[in-house]
Design brief:
single chain, 212 residues, alpha+beta, DNA polymerase, domain 1, six-stranded mixed sheet, 7 helices, 6 strands, elongated, iron, Aldehyde oxidoreductase iron-sulfur-binding subunit PaoA
């Protein structure tokens, strides 16, 4: 991966970002909590007092990326289609755009160790947090025990849901290395396999648990 520019990007609050920008549209499409934030100033393109877009820094898989985002830009959009200010594409397409409404888990990533749906998180809310995608789980060429177990059990069919399941499984085992079957089911309850392959996913997590 090319070296990313180390200069820190804008750390702009959600309140400043959304203030006055398409008030009717934004208010209808984001939760009220999105409007809560600090009042830090920012170097951003503005319309009056409203910030239309801003350059923010995201830490993704241990690498800093400076990306320009709009108020409505989701973390998933940045991961899949974003580019940093040096012109390099982020190009982390493991998180899948499937339902785009926080129901299927295909876009699951970890933010500060907790699983989130990247399609439901604004990119600007991921500032100052550690973002881990499925691409960042392996240690170089050494696969994570979860990844090895998914291969061992052939725990994939179409493959669209697989990255989300791997991320959720990794997050679960990082907190509980010896989960019961019920705890595994709860840990993966936010992910859907439309191929009906869930039982094999459960077996893979049990195997990975033994390795860990």
């Amino acid at each position: 991966m090319p070296d990313k520019e180390k200069k820190k990007g804008t750390n702009i609050s959600r309140r400043s970002f959304l203030k006055g920008v398409g008030t009717g549209t934004v208010a209808a499409t984001v939760a009220p909590s999105v409007l809560i934030g600090s009042e830090k100033t920012a170097d951003a393109q503005q319309v009056g007092d409203a910030v239309e877009s801003a350059t923010i820094q995201l830490n993704i898989n241990g690498e800093p990326y400076q990306v320009e985002v709009e108020a409505r830009t989701t973390l998933l959009t940045v991961l899949r289609d974003g580019s940093d200010t040096s012109g390099n594409n982020v190009d982390l397409t493991g998180a899948k755009l499937i339902c785009d409404r926080g129901e299927c888990g295909g876009c699951t990533v970890m933010v500060d160790g907790k699983t989130v749906y990247a399609c439901m998180m604004l990119a600007m809310d991921a500032q100052d947090k550690q973002i881990t995608t499925v691409e960042g789980i392996a240690d170089g060429d050494d696969l994570h025990p979860v990844q090895e177990a998914f291969i061992q059990h052939d725990a994939l069919m179409c493959g669209f849901c697989t990255p989300g399941f791997i991320v959720s499984s990794t997050a679960l085992l990082s907190e509980n290395t010896k989960p019961t079957l019920e705890e595994i089911k709860v840990g993966l309850s936010g992910n859907t396999c439309r191929c009906g392959h869930l039982s094999v996913h459960l077996d893979a997590v049990k195997t990975a648990s033994k390795k860990m």
